[in-house]
Design goal:
single chain, alpha+beta, Aminopeptidase, 7-stranded mixed beta sheet, 7 strands, binds coenzyme A
Amino acid sequence: MVREALNQDFNRINEIGLLIKDNFSTVYKIDEAVKNDYTHIYVYEEDNKVLGFIHIEDHFEITDVINIAVDKDSQGKGIGKKLLQYVIDNTKAEKLMLEVKENNIPAIKLYESMGFKQIHMRPNYYEGNINALIMERSI
Ligand SMILES: CC(C)(COP(=O)(O)OP(=O)(O)OC[C@H]1O[C@@H](n2cnc3c(N)ncnc32)[C@H](O)[C@@H]1OP(=O)(O)O)[C@@H](O)C(=O)NCCC(=O)NCCS
């Protein structure tokens, strides 16, 4: 099931977040982030174990997907889709937007499978001259 993250989930989220960045916990400070009214972190839990999370920010008509990650051993089982679908079902925004590294094929495939379309490309946005794709999906 997908539910709002609780304080007790933060260590596990920081652990899964290592798949995104090796300094995830210091960059995203999720314990601070959830104090904002516009930030939400949802987790996917199965048998009392958190297997993935999604971090979003609501900005009026747009919800930004900041991060999504699924535990390595649980990838490819539809959990990423469930997390995104939960956001789609619960946001009051008109569209979702996100930014993804051009070479992150699993993430791009997930977003495409959920109806996201590329609308811009930011050249050399990431370290190592990696382009960023900006993708969006209407609700
Ligand atoms: C991106 C990520 C969240 C996907 O989560 P997931 O639970 O494995 O994805 P799902 O099982 O829900 O798959 C969703 C779709 O993406 C596709 N997909 C997922 N992983 C894929 C891969 N490695 N290669 C190709 N396609 C892939 C699936 O085929 C599926 O499409 P379908 O329904 O049409 O078959 C996961 O790979 C991850 O945590 N990556 C590391 C963190 C990251 O890079 N996050 C994104 C940037 S913040």
